[in-house]
Amino acid sequence: MQETDLEGSEREFRQACAAGRHDDAVALIFERYGVGLLRFLADRLPSRADAEDVLSDVAVKMLSAVPTLDLRCSARAWAYTVARNAAIDFHRRPHRRPGRNMSLTSPEAAGVAQQLRTTTAAYLKTSVKNRFRELRQQLPEEDQTVLVLRLDRGFSWDEIAAVTLPGTSGQAQQAETARLRQRFKRAKDKLQALATREGLLD
Question: Could you say which of 110, 125, 140 is where a domain stops?
């Protein structure tokens, strides 16, 4: 499912959390943003299998966090923050593979997880996109994050700031978004130069 009706999704997520329906809240995150999260992880991990495993780890982390979650950003930004941190943890402990089974108790959540694996198969097998992914992985981790969130996921600059520097607001957030804009431009120029050198762009 596409990342559409963001305001409605945010409202449903917060209502589920407030009602104590924690695994329904996490299932909603995966229903709305799961495909994007899996693609986001696939862009920064060695293989599709690793991305799927880490996505399972993300679900477990979310379930642990939701009961006491004090959300100061959008649910979408929070979801990508958890995914980014899980990817960083994976690289820090490359021999640790998270459990494959998502700890979501509702049958709907299990169905969403299976749908994610199926619907992303074509995307992950596309050769040109895979080559761009390989080139992007040559950039620093923060450059990769900013490019993916801005270009692929359509995040606002405030949402990206919430992912890269959680808890910012006011002048600190403005300064962070200004820094991210500059970083984005430099990263995009670097990626374009790499792609041109590889013959992917004219």
Answer: 125
pLDDT band at 35 (very low <50, low <70, confident <90, very high): confident
In terms of pTM, does the model score above 0.70? no
Nearest Cα to Cα of residue 37 among 58, 16, 67: 58
Residue by residue, what is the 3-state secondary structure of 25-81?
Answer: HHHHHHHHHHHHHHHHHHCCCCCHHHHHHHHHHHHHHHHHHHHHCCCCCCHHHHHHH
With 0-12 CB in 10 A as exposed, 13-18 as middle and 19+ as buried, what is 79? buried
Residues 148 and 117 in one domain: no
Q: Cα 201 to the chain's mean position, in Å?
A: 26
Domain count, the chain: 2
Residue 40 shares a structural domain with residue 109: yes
